User: What shape does this take?
Amino acid sequence: MIIKIDGKECTCESGEFLIDIAKRNDIFVPTLCSMKPVLLDRGCCRVCVVELTENSRSKIVVSCIYPVERECEVFTQSEKAVRERGMVLALLKLLAPDAKLITQMAKAYHAPELERLEPRADGGSCILCGRCVDACNLLGTSAIAAMNRGVTKEINTAFGAPATTCIGCTSCAQVCPTDAISFEETDSTRTIWNQSFELAHCEICGEILGTAASLKHAANITGDEPSSLCPKHERRNSAKSLASIYRR
Assistant: This one.
């Protein structure tokens, strides 16, 4: 099947998401939640809206969760798409006034100033996309979740207390599009979500492998012993083991 995106003919399969087709054809679509590894498709930031025309009718769709099922024409920079994207960024700026990336994008995409509305009182950089929660759940730890409702909604551990299931892996921070989840690290500990974790190091070079809790969690899943070597020395040990086998 062939569709057109900004005048360019793009070959695709039925059911493919629009943003994936655009990326494959080097067509840029602004986005927040697809900038880092995508875990689950949820259309959370809605910055990637585009205008889609089908059977002479046009509509605004969220490209990261819109599956293409028939021939159509897509416009990423049409007047309607730009206006909708600007409004989305203006609202996100109010929700997360401390997020530098959103402020930059709002300026770059000419987001309107919504003077009648006030920024979130407690500030912050979180846009409540839930990607961090997805990451935690996919690991099987479920240490964080969306708490409260309305203007007090936030991502946190239960009652803001240290979560017994948290392993300090920072997967939540790694998938956050606005770097809203912070953590601190010393030579021996990592602190995140109000608790500190012991760090494990490569027994040969001393490189940080992760927290001891995260290594134990991974080992429990695979049924192996917790890793004690960094990837570099793990490969070297594997190569030596293979070499010794062939020398016999």
User: Anything to note?
Assistant: The first helix runs from residue 18 to 24. The mean pLDDT is 90. The two ends are 56 Å apart (CA to CA).
